[in-house]
Amino acid sequence: MAKSKKEVLVLEDILGSNKKLAASIRQKLRENGILAVNLLSSPGSGKTSLLEKIGFCLKDRYRIGVIEGDIETERDAERIRKIGLPAWQIITHGACHLEAKMIARIFDRIPADLDFLFIENVGNLVCPASFDLGESLRLVLLSVPEGDDKPRKYPEAFITSQVFVITKCDLLPHLPFDVERVIREAREINPKLEVFKTSALSGEGLEELCAFLEKKLEELRRQNA
Ligand SMILES: Nc1nc2c(ncn2[C@@H]2O[C@H](COP(=O)(O)OP(=O)(O)OP(=O)(O)O)[C@@H](O)[C@H]2O)c(=O)[nH]1
Ligand SMILES: [Mg+2]
Fold first, then answer.
1. What's 132's domain CATH number?
2. Which of 161, 156, 159 has its CA nearest to residue 141?
3. How many structural domains does the chain have?
């Protein structure tokens, strides 16, 4: 059923105030030279697994913090703490996405001397795409078992992201998944997408992805200089 005019106005108001708050979060993070990265995907696509691997790859040279968004439990934050990184869990109690106000509420717990702040959004390929969290970089993940037809079906996540990470590529020999098709269709939606093929299991593509993140941090620092 079509939304009423009142519903549309309420939605516009929520998104408008989220955008303003996100802009001020982004400004503060950037002033401190922190690259904030928002990870979006369906439940179970491998966000936390990828963050564990990125953490291993970068933690000796950079200060990293992780915000974990989940509907319930502190499980993902505990996984991140196990690899020696600080993690702050946001439990949304039912909300299917993070919003800027949730980041703002825990903002004073985030050290100002971080290099990278990763934000793992609630597992959902739809709603998180509409909410800017103040990140400088948005990554959309799609895992091989989810199927190669998803970019056109869930375009907003691909339109609003700068990076497309195909995860669980170790499963490619076992599943029908056309890598060229998924990249082509994602770039038809958003021609500027950077694409990485990764596997948290085999390690494929992780070095390249980490090098890209380092380059993005350098760019941010250069803009600040
Ligand atoms: N084969 C394979 N399995 C993976 C890979 N990465 C993650 N998995 C598995 O996929 C499942 C989900 O991984 P998570 O990292 O928890 O996924 P997530 O996106 O963080 O899940 P939510 O936070 O619940 O949305 C786990 O059983 C992982 O072991 C991968 O590269 N290859
Ligand atoms: Mg997770």
1. 3.40.50.300
2. 161
3. 1
The answer to whether 179 and 148 have CB atoms below 8 angstroms apart is yes
CA-wise closest residue to 136 among 152, 116, 155, 150: 116
Residue whose CA lies nearest to ligand 1 atom number 13: 46
The tens digit of pLDDT for each residue in 204-220 reads 999 999 999 999 999 99
Structural domain that includes position 106:
5-224
Q: What is the mean pLDDT of the chain?
A: 96
Instruction: Please give the distance, rounded to the nearest whole angstrom, from the Cα atom of residue 46 to the centre of ligand 2.
Output: 7
Residue from 45, 49, 172 to probe ligand 1 pocket by mutation (most atoms less than 8 Å from CB): 49
Query: Which ligand 1 atom is the nearest neighbour of the CA of 141?
Result: 19
Question: What is the pLDDT at residue 14?
Answer: 78
